[in-house]
Specification:
By secondary structure, the chain is an alpha+beta fold. It has helices at about 25-30, 30-40, 55-65; strands at about 15-20, 45, 50, 70-75. The chain has a four-stranded antiparallel β-sheet with strand order 2-3-1-4. It starts with 14 loop residues before the first strand and ends in an 18-residue tail after the last strand.
Length: about 90
């Protein structure tokens, strides 16, 4: 964000404990966000990994789907979803 005086302000998410979810099979990896979203679980979707907050019940479910999980300290920026306040460009005419 550029300030009125021309300086730039950078905002960065703080690192927190998250679970990175990986799967050997890319076809299976793209199915996992559906299961997480079906449970209304905030999920960060990256190119080869998903990130969620720790939840032993969800982690057990993901293991059942063959996912590999690892706890990491990283910024967590989940997808906002259909009802988030991202720029909406609906034409209501």
């Amino acid at each position: 964000m550029q300030l009125d005086d021309g300086k730039w302000l950078r905002i960065q998410a703080a690192a927190e404990l998250v679970v990175e979810v990986r799967h050997e099979d890319p076809n299976q990896l793209v199915r996992l966000p559906w299961h997480l979203g079906n449970r209304h679980l905030p999920t960060e979707i990256r190119s080869r990994v998903l990130r969620i907050r720790p939840d032993h019940v969800i982690e057990e479910m993901l293991h059942g789907f063959g996912a590999a999980l690892i706890n990491v300290e990283a910024p967590f920026q989940p997808e906002g979803g259909a009802y988030s306040n991202h720029e909406n460009h609906h034409d209501n005419s």
